[in-house]
Design brief:
By secondary structure, this protein is an alpha+beta fold. A hairpin with a 3-residue loop joins strand 13 and strand 14. The termini are far apart.
Length: 434
């Protein structure tokens, strides 16, 4: 199978890595790609937002499957242009991608489908925003209605900060704060059948202890030892399938990756947001655990044959990814700094730990340098979260990027809690044999 992946982030590197390991993939291309993706795929310069250019490239390459990674090209209708060229594409239409492109649209779909979510108001004036903020009280949750690269949400106890963010947006969704831990659950769908993947948890705040500003994500882990075993099935029945059914009923079937950001609240599961594509950095850990070859699954979604697939196979191992970000991220990041130590990871830590590139490129001297806010995702697997995170941080220590930053507590609490639970279970088993 000849596959073309559109995008240039760590998510696309994770997809390309998985596809490169699939025996069914005979040729792998990525546009525009990055320095890391170039090691597993042939790169092509293209404007990822230009549907005609992407479709033309797919035709030229004789691609048999196109995977559109980022949200902006999906909302811009790039998948539509590829479909119009007669090539199977993994990714929703521009109209269906409004599930991520407009939070107000997503709220309307959820209301029609009976999907549990936070109470909210859509506001277009400062007066409406003030009324909504007063109605819900602190903590204030203010979301830019449109795409904002994962940084359009403000959650704060500071009323003035909430009002300032609302005023900076053309239209905002202001909603009640949802208590409880957050979970990311991906599902692959062909517009009718829905195939959930394994849940993950990401870390949005820039600093340890969930302090600092919101980011696009500073790390993630999977599985979730603390989650109820029935969680995936419950979300499938109450969130994912009703949403897909409602979009199909509206005449805008959703085919591709449906991402549900969830809060496990005291009142049950609630949807925080939907995304229309694989999430970053959760993709890194979910794909690290997927044993079923990826290309056939994506092609089945693109061709409406998902119901014919065998059940997905998953590794029992845990996976942890830690994001290395540029100096000053998530504000204006510093770029152009050389990155060293990548070869050491490939030599000493593989196959259990590896690096996925996001904001990187090669400079005129052939060096890999930083080219964005989130630069790398150091991903590792292990028998449990403790081993996986130890391997990730050991590998990360080999990387040198001047001024870089990363969180030191990714999966720490979950790993400690899981280890404590195993100790208690072991003690109970021993006591039972006395």
């Amino acid at each position: 199978m000849n596959v073309l992946v559109i995008g240039n982030g760590a998510r696309e590197h994770a997809l390309c890595r998985s596809l490169s390991l699939d025996p069914a993939v005979t040729a792998l291309h990525c546009a525009p790609g990055n320095a890391g993706i170039a090691e597993v795929a042939t790169l092509h310069p293209v404007d990822a937002l230009d549907g005609k250019a992407v479709a033309a490239l797919a035709v030229e390459l004789e691609a048999e499957l196109v995977v559109v990674g980022p949200e902006a090209p999906l909302v811009a209708g790039v998948a539509d242009a590829v479909r119009d060229a007669g090539i199977p594409v993994f990714g929703p239409s521009g109209e269906a991608a409004q599930l991520e492109g407009s939070k107000a649209f997503a709220k309307d779909v959820m209301a029609a489908a009976g999907v549990p979510t936070a109470r909210s108001y859509v506001c277009t004036t400062p007066e409406e925003a003030d009324e909504a903020l007063d109605a819900f009280g602190a903590p204030y949750v203010v979301k830019d209605d449109g795409l904002a690269a994962g940084k359009g949400v403000v959650v704060t106890d500071d009323l003035e900060a909430a009002r300032t963010h609302a005023a900076a947006c053309d239209r905002v969704v202001i909603e009640e704060f949802l208590d409880g831990p957050e979970v990311s659950l991906f599902a692959i769908t062909d517009g009718e059948s829905v195939l959930p993947l394994q849940p993950a948890q990401d870390f949005k705040r820039a600093l340890d202890g969930d302090e600092g500003p919101n980011t696009g994500g500073m790390g993630a882990y999977s599985p979730l030892p603390w989650a109820e075993p029935k969680l995936v099935e419950e979300v499938l029945q109450t969130v994912l399938q009703p949403t897909v059914d409602e979009l199909r009923r509206r005449g805008t079937p959703f085919s591709g990756l449906l991402y549900a950001g969830l809060a496990i609240t005291s009142r049950g599961v609630r949807v925080i947001e939907f995304n229309a594509r694989f999430g970053d950095p959760e993709t890194q850990v979910v794909l690290a655990r997927l044993k079923t070859p990826l290309a056939g699954v994506l092609l089945a979604a693109a061709t409406g044959t998902l119901a014919d697939l065998e059940p997905l196979r998953w590794s029992e191992d845990a996976a942890v990814t830690v994001v290395v970000a540029s100096h000053n991220y998530p504000a204006t990041p510093r770029t152009g700094d050389p990155i060293t130590g990548l070869d050491a990871i490939a030599g000493q830590d593989a196959p259990h730990a590896y690096v996925l590139h996001a904001g990187t490129k090669r400079d005129g001297d052939g060096r890999v340098v930083s080219a964005g806010g989130r630069v790398l995702s150091v991903t590792a697997t292990g028998a449990d979260l403790t081993e996986a995170r130890a391997r990730a941080y050991t590998a990360l220590a080999r990387i040198d990027l001047d001024g870089s930053q990363h969180r030191t507590d990714i999966a720490a609490k979950a790993a400690a809690d899981a280890a404590a639970a195993e100790d208690v279970a072991g003690t109970a088993d021993t006591a039972g044999t006395l």
